[in-house]
Write a structure and sequence with these properties.
Structural class of chain B: mainly beta
CATH class of chain B: Mainly Beta
CATH architecture of chain B: Sandwich
Order of helices and strands of chain A: HHEHHEHEEHEEEEEEEEEHEEEEEE
Structural class of chain A: alpha+beta
Strand content of chain A: 35-45%
Distance between the termini of chain B: 42 Å
Largest sheet of chain B: 7 strands, antiparallel
Number of strands of chain A: 19
Shape of chain B: elongated
Number of domains of chain A: 2
Number of strands of chain B: 14
Strand order of the largest sheet of chain A: 12-11-10-9-8-7-6-5-19-18-17-16-15-14-13
Number of helices of chain B: 0
Number of helices of chain A: 7
Distance between the termini of chain A: 68 Å
Largest interface: A-B, 60 and 38 residues
Radius of gyration of chain A: 23 Å
Oligomer: heterodimer
Chain lengths: ~375, ~180
């Protein structure tokens, strides 16, 4: 059965492991099959899950990966094996040397970043509802740990957001005002882009708009609606050449849809419904938050930021530096420097905001020699 | 073009910096050939010329996170029973440097016991490991060389993508 289908019961995996171990110096083998059709296997598992009301567990890994074998061995411990069998249809997806099934990994939030094994939990509808990847795997050393982590992943009732806490960073209320910043963009020394950030403050909500373009090509248009009191994101629409996204943040969860190109095939659509820290903000909130920080030099704030590309929440560090002099095309001005770092796309960034009021974004330095700068 | 919010993961991005610069002093001459960070490991490669015509190609591999280990240089290309990947530094082609001995490691390996599989894998202890390859050096003229690097960083819970036979083009300048 193992050799025919990759959607395998846990019991069958145990037999396969034992058999391979008896082969002496030959390869251990394993469940990750290079010629498998991962997309078809996932579809089969989803159909079976719809029929028997289970979930689908995607296990991205490779047969050369010792931690993948170690995790699989934990799957076979009595408690974990019975739990997995009762709860999931398991699909093993071979990543090769990270050169196989990359499109499938990308569809499910760059699943194999930062490494393998990586476990993704799907509802029978195909909705992504949980990740157990990277550092989340560190405390897994027993079958009970496997059960605990996956149980949390399938628990869709968790809600901690009723209190609507403000973002885990102190903003200056005076800076929450209708405004617009237009920045010129240089990339690798070439000018030709614009980055426009607008904020509109309404009676019960705050709306931010990002429009970026390169020459006459629109690169991004993102709209984020924040709760007017808590300033937490409520809803996001974003369109770039890499993804089209709609997100809603509510009750300690982020739900949404992401459509991303998958040439030469049709675009990939993935729906998700994931638990988040109640203070989580959206990736597109960085240009909103940074210029509106309560600027206290020497302070550091760490905020959880959800990234629709990885479908995961990443800690991002904001460090406010001392007041400094900043040379701009129009002259030298006083500014505060804010360094933004973390395992998030397009970080690290260094921002400079005006020391004078009203606060303005003066410059933002991004990776790959990209500089956004005020012309004023 | 990175004008919107999209871009590459910083941790996955690979930046190779090729540089040349000799130190004109008595004793060994140290030429920095390449530095890069890829898949959670910082790599620095230098050419140390101990005396005219003889030297060492020295590669230092530093995992970025505690808990990560690198596998022994002596691991087979495809690992032991398929598991693990060796740490290697090789000269692929060059008119100016040629391997003149066996690759040596700065630290002995220890056996990582994979309990569920009942097998051991030789890995270097946590922290940097330096591989040294004796080479014959001919630097009467500036010449290009191609090096190859292989490694993979894993902890007991996760493996980062392997770097397999990464080719690095460098220039060996003439010795002053």
């Amino acid at each position: 059965m193992v050799g025919v289908r990759r959607v395998v019961p846990v019991v069958a995996m145990t037999i396969g492991l034992t058999s391979c171990a008896g082969l002496g110096l030959l390869s251990l083998g394993g469940p990750y099959v290079s010629h498998a059709n991962a997309r078809a296997d996932i579809q089969t598992a989803l159909l079976e899950a719809q029929a028997d009301h289970k979930f689908v567990l995607l296990d991205f890994g490779a047969n050369w990966c010792a931690p993948c074998h170690a995790l699989r061995a934990l799957f076979h411990t009595p408690h974990a094996a019975s739990y997995l069998l009762a709860t999931f249809h398991l699909v093993y997806i071979d990543v090769g040397n990270f050169n196989r099934n990359g499109d499938v990994a990308r569809k499910y939030g760059s699943a194999t970043w930062p490494g393998i094994p990586a476990l993704i939990v799907l509802a029978s509808s195909g909705e992504v509802i949980g990740f157990v990847t990277g550092k989340a795997l560190s405390p897994v050393s027993s079958g009970d740990d496997v059960v605990r982590l996956l149980s949390a992943a399938v628990d869709r009732t968790a809600s901690t957001g009723s209190a609507l806490p403000r973002p885990a960073v102190e903003l200056d209320p005076a800076q929450i005002r209708t405004s617009a910043d237009t920045l010129g963009v240089r990339a690798a020394g070439e000018s030709g882009g614009t980055f426009v950030f607008k904020l509109e403050v309404g009676s019960d909500s705050v709306t931010s708009t990002i429009v970026s373009s390169w020459h006459d090509t629109l690169l991004q248009r993102a709209l984020t609606v924040y709760d007017g009191l808590s300033l937490r994101p409520k809803e996001v629409w974003d369109s770039t050449d890499a993804e089209q996204v709609h997100l809603t943040y509510a009750a300690g969860r982020v739900r949404g849809t992401r459509v991303s190109p998958n040439p030469p095939g049709p675009p990939d659509t993935v729906n998700f419904d994931l638990a988040t820290d109640p203070s989580t903000v959206d990736r597109r909130s960085v240009p909103f938050i940074v210029p509106r920080l309560a600027l206290v030099p020497g302070t550091t704030a760490v905020i959880p930021i959800f990234d629709s590309w990885t479908l995961r929440t990443h800690p991002v560090r904001l460090v406010t530096g001392d007041r400094t002099r900043l040379a701009l095309p129009a002259g030298t001005v006083d500014a505060y420097r804010i360094d933004v770092t973390g395992d998030l796309r397009n970080l690290p960034q260094t921002w400079y905001v005006s020391a004078d009021l009203p606060r303005r974004t003066l410059r933002s330095e991004w990776p790959r020699h990209t500089v956004l700068e005020s012309a004023q | 073009m990175t004008l919107n919010e999209d871009g590459l993961f910083p941790l996955l991005a690979c930046a190779v910096v090729l540089s040349v610069g000799g130190v004109t002093q008595a004793g060994p001459v140290r030429l920095s050939l390449a530095t890069f960070v890829e898949n959670e490991v910082a790599v620095e490669i230098v050419l140390v010329q101990d005396e005219p015509g003889r030297g060492r190609l020295v590669g230092t591999f530093t995992p970025l996170d505690p808990g990560l280990h690198l596998y022994s240089k002596d691991l087979p290309t495809h690992g032991i029973r398929g598991l693990g990947r060796p740490t290697r530094l090789q000269v692929v082609s060059s008119r100016s440097i040629k391997a003149a001995g066996a690759l040596a490691a700065s630290r002995p390996t220890l056996d990582l016991f994979i309990r569920p599989l009942g097998m051991k894998l030789p890995v270097y202890p946590e922290g940097p490991v330096t591989l040294s390859l004796p080479v014959s050096v001919r630097t009467d003229a500036s010449t290009a060389a191609q090096l190859s690097v292989t490694y993979m960083a894993c902890s007991d819970r996760i493996c980062h993508p392997p770097v397999i036979d990464k080719r690095i083009a460098v220039t060996i300048p003439p010795r002053p």
